[in-house]
Specification:
Distance between the termini: 13 Å
Number of strands: 17
Helix content: 25-40%
CATH class of the largest domain: Alpha Beta
Shape: globular
Largest sheet: 7 strands, mixed
CATH architecture of the largest domain: Alpha-Beta Complex
Number of domains: 2
CATH topology of the largest domain: Quinone Oxidoreductase, Chain A, domain 1
Structural class: alpha/beta
Strand content: 15-25%
């Protein structure tokens, strides 16, 4: 089978490997498409330490080559890339997403940039035929956003600000709309992403360089500030901005992964405003069926978020493209490799 292997930082090679064998509770999935994530980019560049060689990729859709107790071969599935143990303290308390022994496919063990992948049977979820392979890898991203929003209450007519309108920010915007939030305000430097956010349900979109940004947010939220701010940039300065914008008694979802070791925050405001912060990490198993249902019902749109598609053998080009400011989700199509 064909596999794209990361042999060292910034060194990918298309090779042939033996097909995986099924053992224990694993099943084999024939991968049809994979999404490129910021984590993949960081691993590729060497910013995230991993053991080499490694097969990247954790956003995937495929078909079952072998059956589970409930699903027949040929069933199209998405895969939860978080392989949890099921027996540790966190797992026994329904927190499989923060399992102390967990391995992430594409980081801690081989991932999706291959023809066939052995995965735990409990990590596969069937998807309806109307969900195209081109968009289905985005379901994994949606599950993490859904998990994040399940960590905080959003009531109808709550005001929501989304800082950063990349893929996750645009998904958070749609989820907030589905929960009845109003107004929903999106903030990004990108004019094209502001336009897309408006089409996907944002009531107001603002360039962060606008000197009247805070005044516009205050006016749109009836002089109170937003009930919820979702930080999707992953920088200390935007977390500080979230603290500054949110209303007294409000909530913040710290969704962007902040890797900085130090930075200035308005700590007194955290106390004075009595803010609640949610710090989500990975999705839970129950987030997958709900996310699939939201997309199947048309409540959340994935297609507008896919900007580029490449064949599997062009994985390096796909990774480079995903780092461009004009791109959103980049998809690798596994169908043409070797043809």
């Amino acid at each position: 089978m064909h596999t794209v292997v990361l042999e060292s930082p910034e060194s990918l090679r298309l090779v042939k490997r033996p097909e995986p064998t099924v053992g224990g509770e694993d099943v084999v999935v024939r991968i049809r498409a994979t999404g490129i994530c910021g984590t993949d980019v960081s691993i590729f560049s060497g910013k995230v330490a991993v053991d080499y060689p490694l097969v990247l990729g954790h956003e995937m859709v495929g078909t079952l080559e072998s059956s589970t107790s409930e699903l027949a071969p040929g069933t199209r599935v998405v895969v939860d890339p978080n392989v949890f143990c099921g027996t540790c303290y966190q797992c026994l308390r329904g927190q499989e997403n923060v399992c102390g022994r967990a391995e992430l496919m594409g980081r801690d063990r081989d991932g999706a940039l291959t023809d066939l992948l052995a995965v735990p049977a409990r990590n596969v979820y069937p998807i309806p035929e109307e969900l195209d392979d081109r968009i289905a890898p985005l379901l994994q991203v949606l599950t993490t956003c859904l998990h994040a929003q399940r960590q905080t209450q959003v009531f109808p007519q709550d005001s929501v600000v989304v800082l950063g309108l990349g893929v996750s920010g645009l998904l958070h915007l749609q989820l907030a709309r589905a929960r009845g939030a109003h107004p929903i305000i999106g903030i990004t430097r990108s004019e094209s992403k502001r336009s897309l956010a408006a089409r996907l349900g944002a009531d107001l979109v603002i360039d962060p360089s606008d000197p009247a940004l805070k005044e516009q947010v205050v006016e749109a939220t009836q002089a109170q500030g937003p009930d919820l701010v979702v930080e999707c940039v992953g920088k200390t300065e935007t977390l500080a901005q979230a603290i500054d914008l949110v209303r007294v008694g409000g909530r913040i979802i710290v969704f962007g992964t902040i890797t900085e070791d130090a930075g200035e925050l308005p700590f007194y405001q955290l106390y004075y405003k009595e803010l609640s912060l949610a710090n989500p990490r990975a999705a839970k198993p129950e987030d997958f069926p709900t996310s699939i249902g939201l997309v199947a019902a048309g409540t959340v749109e994935l297609d507008p978020l896919v900007t580029h598609t490449f064949p599997l053998e062009s994985a390096e080009e796909a990774i480079a493209t995903s780092s461009e400011s004009s791109s959103l989700k980049v998809i690798l199509d596994h169908g043409s490799v070797g043809q």
